[in-house]
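Weekly sync notes, structure subgroup
Attendees: PM, AL, DS (notes)

Item 1: joint prediction request from the bench team. They want all three components modeled as one assembly rather than separately. Inputs as received:
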Amino acid sequence: MAAIELDGLEVRLGGRPVLNGLRGALNGRAIGLLGPNGAGKSTLINTLLGFHTPLRGTARVFGLDIRQRSMEIRGLVGYMPETEAFIAGMSGIKFVRYMAELSGLPPEQAMERAHEAFFYVGLGEVRYRKLGTYSLGMKQLAKLAQAIVHGPKLLVLDEPTNGLDPLARQRMIQLIRDIRDAGDIRLLLSSHLLRDVDETCDEVLILKDGCVAAICNLEEERRSNRKFIEMETAGAAAAFTDAVRALGCECASFSNGRLKIVMPDKVEIRDLYTIAAAQGVQIRRMNHRRDSLEDIFLGAMNGNGAGAAHGRL
Amino acid sequence: MAVYKRNYRAYAGPATPMSWRWLAITRFGLGEVFASRNTVVLFVLCLVPPLLSAFLIYVVNSDTVRALLNLRGAPPLSINNRFFLGLLEVQGWLALFLTAWVGPSLISPDLTNNALPLYLSRPVSRARYLAGKLLTLALLLSAVTWAPLLLLVGVQAATAPGRWLAPNLFLVPGIFLGACIWIAVLSLLALAVSAWVRWRIVAIGLTLAVVFIPAGFGGVVSAVLRTKWGLLLNIPYVITRVWIQLLRVTISNTRINGELVNALDFPAAAAWTVLVAICALSMLLLNKRIQARQVVRG
Amino acid sequence: MNDRIIFEDISKFYGDVLGVNHVTLSLPPGITSLVGPNGSGKTTLMNLMTGLIQPTRGHINVLGMTPADPAALFRVVGYCTQFDSFPRGVTGFEFIYEGLLLHGLGHTQAGQLTSEALHRVGLLEAAHRQVAGYSKGMRQKIRLAQALAHHPTVLVLDEPLNGLDPMARAEAMALFETLGRQGLHLVISSHILEEVDRISDRVVLMTNGYVVAEGNIHAVRQEVREQPMQILVRCSQPSLLASRVFALNHAVEAKLHADGKGLLVRTRNLDQFYELLNRSAAEGLVEIEAVAPADDDVNSIYQYLIGSEGGQS
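Output from the run, pasted for the record:
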């Protein structure tokens, strides 16, 4: 069953149309939500959660219609909002317990799960302190704890790494991946950082001006990028690029010895190394193209389809 | 031997029925209210008048005690509807102060740090959220208004000579309904203030001001225009008028600007209307403020 | 020395609380990235640089000017803070315009510069709407516009990409690169290390109020001598490659990846290792899938010097 189905969803806010007839089905385990500012990402999330009523059309979460069965949907969903969200006077444990009971857990189980959740996200030491005393990183983790404490089927994360320093961000991403892999839970992650989405999601929904610009399956894209190579060299001159082109590859060179190469089917990486050895060029970094998400995103913004990922340097 | 890995695990246990989940709001609300020692003290103080009244009723009705105290003749105090009206008024004032003290901390912490989306992203609708908060205040105020009073009715019925209860049975629904009206007005007002005002001191002051200031203003209007309709703005007067009707008190005189006025001249329907209007206004204010997302126009 | 930002043994305390301690820096023109966890003193440093606060001890000299001469200093410095606050009820246009008037510019000139700045960040259409109604990304852009409007020669940017969608980020980064090449001093603080890595010439790492490292990123890496260079090689027969590596005596460690398709090598002599690798690949000994220096970027330096292990040293 598709996690989220959009069926001509139209939403108006403050007199302005924000979502214009969204259509599509999202099946991935972790769905990324991308789009420029004002494209309607937050509005889409808010509508799925039942905060806004659609003007026309509808959407379904796990088959439940958002117009009619909003309460049930909210029972299955865990939400981590982008902005700060806490009750300053409560201790961390009390707050998460409270939220768990509101989500339908009996009091004893709520207490157990609250402690578990805190230890799981790494806030075990500070769980008895009042939320008002937490640092920004801790508040973000507390938000994650309250979103997962009741074991939702769909976890909605809105900019989860917002304001986190690099180490905290890595921990958050690792947590998200662990949760995703634990099974029986789907993720919807909205972010401006392509890297976050790339590291966690296997399907992407890209919005532009309130419409669906693209729905892409990232796993497939990654698998099909075999023949796109990026490399960094030391000592490469025009001769190297010429020799590579002579093999039949397309080759573009950038500053700092960086090259991007598209290999036709008959050429192997070993051939590139042979040329390098012959010319005395050191290949210092080499990998298959990883910025497919960036390509997909730019393609979607420029109005091309998902096929723009191929044949472009 | 086994090595236990702590991973995320889904929840597979029982779930509480969806219609009762919002009661958690009430439970936690009451927990927070009684966490403060000052509140507990205030609450206990509110129960002192009923306690004293119980003692008084006992003394009035007990021949032995009266003999002991050498009081002859008819009992000086008649425990009738006017007695209960007076007690209801006292408890009504105490309820006002208790509400002003407790009310501000109910909704404002949820709004200050934007916790409301976390509530509303759960199977808790706005209406149920509000119901949970209202119930917190209602339970608290019930314990200082109709609950002790009805107990006192019971005490009186038990200790009074003769059959006192039968002709006075109307007191039971009268007290209950009267107290409920006052609880509703106070609760909605306090929640509306709590939703709009962030600082506790200001909220407490505002709750009291909403009751007192229009009363003063109404007095001025009455004096200047020489009319009794200024009393519409006097909330304590209005609720007393309603109680007079519910407890079927026949004659009641109030002093307005030094002149004795027969309260029954003032129509009860007008009083009810004012109370309903206050409740409606509070609901409107709450509806505006309790939103998951604020949409800024322009 | 008039083209540098100089901090001479600066310390700043807020009562008992430490802002920065014993900071000595000399920043040339170009892009300097300021990196560190939350609370490490980055914002304090930026406030000191722009003359908003005075140091408890030490001297600051910005291009020959000091905060003792505020009119001159503020005229050449543009500051884009990380805090999202605006005067109430102000529109985008007014926000920038009134700021320019404060610099002593005439009405017409201020109007021109405002429109120019708005055009640069792409907010011309939304300029006459209230800032309170802007999305997060738009508010970020208006702050950026305000910092650029008076054509400063020193730009101090505190997390300028926060809340911007991927395209806006790319545009902003391109803008910063252009300004850097024009000879401006840019000091950019950000948590997204890959992005700043790409455009900055030098990096300043801070933690707990101290500067732990500064300079060109590769030079910094070389100096962290306790840690030999790490290279990650994904190939078909890692054990074979490992045996070759051990034949040379500069390798410190070779670790086989759990999935049997990768090798992590730590070596003190990069050049020799690359020679070996390229030769092995050209000979067809192993099939190389990817080669990547595992720690020649800001992320790894961050881990070493600021991360949990490095924090103790």
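Discussion: The longest strand of chain B covers residues 253-256.
Action: AL to compare against the crosslinking data before next sync.
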